[in-house]
Structures are given as structure tokens and as C-alpha cells.
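Let's practice the habit of predicting before peeking. Look at the sequence and jot down your guess about where helices and strands might fall. Then scroll down.
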Amino acid sequence: MEVTQIHNYFLDKFRGKVNTTIDQIKNEMKKSEYYVDATDEEIDLDAEKIFEKLQIINQEFMKWYEILLSFIFALIGYMAPYALLIFQAKMRQIEMEDEVMQFQTIILMLMRIERVNVEIILEWLERYANIFKGPISKCLNNYEAGAWEALEEMKNEVTYPQLIRIIESLQAAVEKIPIKDAFDELESERDYYKEKRKESNERLIKRKEMMGKVIGFAPMVCLFVGYLIIPLVFIGLTSMSSSMNAANAMKAR
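Done guessing? Here is the structure:
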């Protein structure tokens, strides 16, 4: 550690001075307090070490691939929050589909029970709601002030089309239409969205399978390219360069 600190003292003095020579370093070492009692051999040996370190330090600069990597990482860091929002929106979309399908199942079970009204259906929906729990709870709180108006306010708050259709059916049931008639198309819609979701899941599984194959074959491809193709290309270019240099030498003779 002491030797390193002494070397760093002289490196800091000559840092950035590209034309520094060993003799200049030696002269500076002889003037310093660190080498007052040192012999010429010790000064020569340390001066060579300091000179080698100085050459490495002075030759250090930003390389083109370091700048390229910095731009790539900056772009990734800039786009990461946006990509995260897209991922969260996609996951929230899937959660909303699952929750609305759950609402449809609950309504299909309740609509055939006698003495079931819209308020009871909303209470059951609130029990199993997660994403849409806030609008449903607010609708239940305002239900006594006006059922149709509370449902209309809830419809204006949500933007998911499938849930809006359920709310419109509930509004139709409020207007003295039997609940069974208000949701007469619910079963067919549920089957349609169930098949649609099944198809989406199959596409997602196929996409993941393709990504898995790409990731699985990537090490083999990198090994093949890195240890076979690139060395062959390098050897070919080197041989071509040496052949051209020999040809030019022969021409010059």
C-alpha cells in the first residue's frame, strides 16, 4: 500500500502529460522526500514501473463501443418505465377480463333465483370485485337515492365495454324488466369471450414457446459464430492482407 501511494503521488503529477520521459520521472523522484536515501538502482526500477503505469493511464480514452453501449443503456433506461406501463396495462386488461367473466358467472347463478333484485346482484358483485370494487361500492351507496342514476354514474366511471353492457342490463332490470330477460344474452356473450380468451392464451403460449426456442439455441449460435465463423473470417482477411502486401512488395521491386 505504501509503494502504491508513492507511485500514485508521481502519477498524479504527470497524469495527462503524454510526452513525459523516464528521465523526467527520475529527476522528480530524486527531488522528493520519498527517495532521499534510495540508490540509483531503486530509483531506476521504480521509475520504470511508474512510467509503465503512466503509459496505461495516458492511453485510456473513451472507445467507440463504450459510447455505443452508453447510448444503448440510456435508451433502455429511458424506455423502461414506458415498457413497464405497457406491461402493467396488459396485465390489468387480463385481470379485468377475468373479473368481468366472474361477474357474469355470478349473475348467471343469481338471475334464476326468485326475489333477486339489482341491489342484491350488486352486493354479490362487490364481494368478489377487486379492480371495479370502487365504482360498485359507490353505486351501492347511492342506490337508495336513485337506482337508475347510480347505475348511470357507475357506467360513466368505468370504461370497460363488457362491464358497461352488464350495467346497461342492470338498468334495464331496474325498469321493471325481469332480470332473466335483461340478461338473456349473457350466457352466449360469456361463451364468446371465453373462447376469445382461450384463443389469446394459445397465441401467448405459442409466442412463449418460440421465445424459449430462440433463447435455447442462442448459446449454440453464439458459440458457433464466435469460435468458428469469426476466426475464419479474421484468418481470411489476414491472409488476404499479407498476400496483397507481398504482391505490392514484388511490384515495387
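How did you do? Residues 86-195 form one domain.
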